[in-house]
Write a structure and sequence with these properties.
This protein is an alpha+beta fold. The protein folds into two domains: 30 residues; 80 residues, Immunoglobulin-like (Sandwich), CATH 2.60.40. It contains one helix and six strands; from the N terminus they run αββββββ. The strands form two sheets. It has a three-stranded antiparallel beta sheet with strand order 1-2-5, with no helix packed on it. A three-stranded antiparallel beta sheet has the order 4-3-6, with no helix packed on it. The longest helix has 26 residues. The protein is elongated, with a radius of gyration of 33 Å. The protein starts with 30 loop residues before the first helix and ends with a strand. This is DUF4307 domain-containing protein.
């Protein structure tokens, strides 16, 4: 004679008691751990995003080197254009490097746009410690 249990759904296999060891209960859910992991992940991604935004700046403060000229043993003149918010201002970091790529000058230059103006062209002379090979704008950011 076969046994029919009221708690076993039809079609489910019936195992003889004690023959295959103890059956495991379904795992206990841990919603607190899941929520904690999600919160930590979101916080970490937010921190990375903020750091990258601060490092690479606001696209509204975009700078382009037009030319670098008057290269001597102790100077280079850098002409550059900065896109700013209308009537805004920025601080641009300029540097000069020698043939080996070593930095021979670094200076922050304030740039201010006139009312209604979005692009400013600036000419700045960098005094260097050795003969420069190139003058460049590293980045522009809003003034502190």
């Amino acid at each position: 004679m076969t046994e029919t249990h009221a708690t076993i759904p039809p079609g489910a296999p019936v195992f003889p008691p004690g023959r295959y060891g103890r059956r495991r209960q379904p795992g206990r859910r841990r919603p607190l751990l899941t929520v904690l992991l999600v919160v930590v992940s979101v916080a970490a991604l937010t921190a990375v995003s903020v750091r990258l935004y601060r490092q690479y700046g606001d696209p509204a403060y975009d700078a382009q080197v037009i030319t670098y000229t008057d290269i001597t043993d102790n100077q280079v003149v850098v002409d550059f254009r900065v896109n700013l918010p209308e009537g805004g201002s920025a601080v641009c970091l300029l540097r000069a490097r020698d043939n080996a790529g070593a930095e021979v000058a670094r200076e922050e230059v304030p740039v201010t746009a006139a009312e209604g103006q979005r692009q400013v062209t600036v000419r700045h002379r960098l005094t260097t410690t050795a003969r420069p090979f190139i003058g460049e704008v590293v980045r522009c950011r809003p003034p502190a």
